[in-house]
Amino acid sequence: MSILAFLSYVIITSITPGPSNILMMNESRRFGFVGSWKFNSGILLGFAVLGLISGLFTTILYDWIPIAEPYLKLAGAAYLLYIAWQIGFQNKNPSKSSNSTQSSLLTGFLVQILNVKSILFFLTVMSAFILPFNHNYKSVALYLAIAILLGWLALLLWSGFGSLFKEVFSKHDKPFRIIMVLLLIYSAISIFI
Questions:
Q1: Fewer Cβ neighbours under 10 Å: the N or C end of the chain?
Q2: pLDDT digit string (tens) for 85-139?
């Protein structure tokens, strides 16, 4: 296995916009880095659990991945478009202001577990970079741990970005949400590219 190809894929895929990155940035924009910690911790925990589950199932069901992938892509695109809808039309009802309601650890965890971009990320890491070259559990665990750690760093970077630019994003809430919606739509389309 080419370590450079593995690291390039993991870093580039982790840092590009996806539902978790965007939601962590949005939560940090609303409540600051520390104020969004419960939700963000849920996403980080969900990412690790998803990585472990994906690693286990991919190792066991390696030959079935090509059959399941088209269905996962469709589900993922639909999920991303749903999140885009939620961000694009939040605060339309003033009596239900989402700016004052913080998301929970469980919400973050569930968002991440259902995040098909992350599922496809781990399936690709396992099927293209790890399993064709390494079948012993220590190697699989090591490479999964590296992928999870780099994914966490990218998620935290997006969260820090949201917190750092909180004032700018608050002043320009509508354009910010439009950009977030467009990035999510792009993420949904990029699943098929």
A1: C
A2: 877 776 544 444 455 677 889 989 998 998 878 888 888 888 778 888 877 888 8
Backbone angles phi, psi at 2, to 5 degrees: -85, 115
3-state secondary structure of 91: coil
- CB atoms closer than 10 angstroms to residue 102: 15
List of residues 6+ apart from 44 with CB closer than 8 A? 108, 112, 152, 155, 156
Q: How far apart are CA 138 and CA 97, in angstroms?
A: 48
DSSP code, position 102: P
Tally Cβ neighbours within 10 Å of residue 129.
20
CA torsion angle 81 176 122 10 (round to 10): 150
Model confidence, pTM: 0.72
